[in-house]
Amino acid sequence: MKLRVATLTLALALISSSAMADDVKHPLRVGFGLDVGAPSGVAVAIVVHPKVDWLSTSAALTHNGLAFGGRLSVKLDPMGIKNYPIGLFVDCQGGFASNGSIPGYSDLPSFGYQYLNLYGGLRLGRPNGFHWNFEIGPSYVHLTSHNFQGFLGNQGTGVSIGNPTMTGWLVPTFVTGFEIVW
Amino acid sequence: MIKYLALAAVITLSGCVSATVHDESICKVSKLDSIPGSSSGIDATISFSIDSDLSAVFNKLDDYSDTLSVSVTKLDLDSTQDLGWISDASILVTGNSSYLPEVALARLHPGGKGKKLTFDITLDPDTLLKYLKSPVVLTYTVSGTAPTKTANISNTFCVSATGSLNKSL
């Protein structure tokens, strides 16, 4: 058993070092992506692979159904080293959604939020071409509300209530969508 | 394959929220009795009481929170006249049941002058929360040389509340 583990470890180390040696460097790959999920909503992104395909960054314009927002992402995809058609990756995303209220219900409180997503994901398709991503993980969210006092309507009693905030973890959240990188 | 898809669906559809909800200011402004003016300049002690009811707000917060804590952020006495004549003041709070007897809530912060006076809270936060979840009577007692002009007094009482929330989705 120990011999098998040692042999497997040595094999993986040799493959990794060989892969790093074969890692194709390019000046820059640029593409775009489209995904949907929570808490970001629908996102349209510019995707950049700087130098290598196992590192990917993106900047996205998002809309959560109430308001626009933005999102930045840094993705590490070790299986992108050999341009495998399938891969597992980690993705760290930070974003925000502007203050928004439900259309037609401006008397209800509105809210906006900032978030940090820590995702693990599955890539189907080569990193330097079309591929589909499935990502899931926890999100740390800070939510702010507005017009809470107007919604409660307590002005006549002399009681006023400030706009509450909420900060904490939401588990799990997800994103799924495609990217095309040339 | 179907087993793994079902597991993925269960993981995605189930979930939890662990968060802290905070409201910086839950306030009530109350008009108090006027303090009549006097030309005699004698020392006087004046007491007046007012009903204050924030119980609906704090009971609702307590219902939705796993733990709730409060902190007084403002307890001021405002007037149309200078309040520098007040040498001492205190506030007592009484709940609407025998379990909430009259206790000291606050004392005048030293060195106050002008048209606004600030109070220091003497009641601990846990006991304060018990009173806030019930309609209360605030009894103000002020001492000093009676003013020459009638002073209209109002009170601003603000509390911040923080609750923790742990829910499965």
Please provide a written account of the structure.
The complex is a heterodimer of chains A (182) and B (169). Chain A is mostly beta strands and 182 residues long. Chain A is built from two helices and nine strands. In chain A, strands 1-2-3-4-5-6-7-9 form an eight-stranded antiparallel beta barrel. In chain A, strand 6 (110-124) and strand 7 (130-146) form a beta hairpin. The termini of chain A are far apart. By secondary structure, chain B is an alpha+beta fold. Chain B has helices at 2-13, 55-64, 125-132; strands at residues 16-31, 43-52, 67-79, 86-94, 103-108, 116-121, 136-145, 153-168. Chain B has an eight-stranded antiparallel sheet. Chain B is elongated. Chain A binds chain B through residues 136, 141, 157-174, and chain B through 11-12, 15-30, 54, 57, 165. Strand 8 of chain A pairs antiparallel with strand 1 of chain B.
Total helices of chain B: the number is 3
Rg on CA atoms of chain A, Å = 22 Å
Helix content of chain B: 10-25%
Strand order of the largest sheet of chain A: 1-2-3-4-5-6-7-9
Q: In DSSP terms, counting alpha (H) and pi (I) runs of 4 or more, how many helices of chain A?
A: 2
Give the percentage of residues in beta strands of chain B. Answer: over 45%
Q: Please state the oligomeric state of the protein chains shown.
A: heterodimer
Overall, the morphology of chain A is elongated
Distance between the termini of chain A: 45 Å
In terms of DSSP E residues, the strand content of chain A is: over 45%
Major β-sheet profile of chain B: 8 strands, antiparallel
- Helical content of chain A stands at 10-25%
Structural class of chain A: mainly beta
Low-confidence stretches of chain B: none
Profile the largest sheet of chain A.
Answer: 8 strands, antiparallel, barrel
